[in-house]
Amino acid sequence: MKNVVYEMFRKYGRLLSLHGYVVGHGGNLSLRSGNTMYITRHGARLEDLRLEDIIAIPIEGESSFDSIASSEVLLHRAVYLNGAQHLAIVHTHSPYAVAISFFLDELEPLDAEASYVLRKVPVVEGEAGSVKMAERVAEALKDSHAVIVRGHGVFAAAKMLDAAYRYACLVERSSQLKYLVEALRGLGLRFKEAKEL
């Protein structure tokens, strides 16, 4: 199983890096399989993952491997135990989403696809790796596909890694569009509401 997870993580880690949604050791990925969570190692570079960067730990309780797993291990556990039956989590440090988070308490996508799929994306606060942030993100992901942590990044969850990846991409795309629309509005252009969304 670990080899299968590794190939999936390697694929999506490279895609996230290619898009600029993660850099260096930022971001993390996880998958749930039964009572086990596969999560990227603390300090792992998603653009160049190795097999040893995939850590298997229990969903409930703690293990000796928690200390080398991602610093967001508490958050991933909380999401998997929140009752929403998520099986995959993608965490990015997407620049537009992080920038937008300093100004909004909720991102409402403007384009048709993201508006339909995401509806609204809550913005929550919390210190990275903290119990409070884990609780807030897990609570938000009960009813949303994605959440932005102010000044930190995006957490997207789904039943499949591909879907969580797509949700994370949609959040960044929506944040970028919001930025561009507000920039054009600032230049004096008149905003016209799309009627058929």
Quick summary:
The chain is α+β, with helices and mostly antiparallel strands.
Unreliable segments of 5+ consecutive residues: none
Named CATH topology: L-fuculose-1-phosphate Aldolase
Q: Can you tell me the CATH superfamily? A: Class II aldolase/adducin N-terminal domain
Number of domains: 1
Helix content estimate: 25-40%
What oligomeric assembly is this protein in?
A: single chain
CATH class: Alpha Beta
DSSP summary, beta strand count: 8
Biggest sheet, spatial arrangement of strands:
3-2-1-4-8-7-6-5
Q: Estimate the mean pLDDT confidence.
A: 93
Q: How much β-strand is present in the residues?
A: 15-25%
Sheet having the most strands: 8 strands, mixed
Question: Helices and strands in order, then pairings?
Answer:
Elements (H helix, E strand, L loop, with lengths): L1 H18 L8 E6 L2 E5 L13 E5 L14 H8 L7 E5 L2 H7 L4 E2 L4 H7 L2 E4 L6 H10 L5 E4 L3 E6 L2 H26 L11
Parallel strand pairs: 6-7
Antiparallel strand pairs: 1-2, 1-4, 2-3, 4-8, 5-6, 7-8
Describe this structure in words.
With 197 residues, this protein is α+β, with helices and mostly antiparallel strands. The chain has a single domain (2-186), classed as L-fuculose-1-phosphate Aldolase, CATH 3.40.225.10. It is 39% helix and 19% strand. Strands 3-2-1-4-8-7-6-5 form an eight-stranded mixed β-sheet, sandwiched between helices. Helix 2 (73-80) runs parallel beside helix 5 (131-140) and helix 3 (95-101) packs across helix 6 (161-186). It is elongated and about 55 Å long. 42% of the residues are buried. The mean pLDDT is 93.
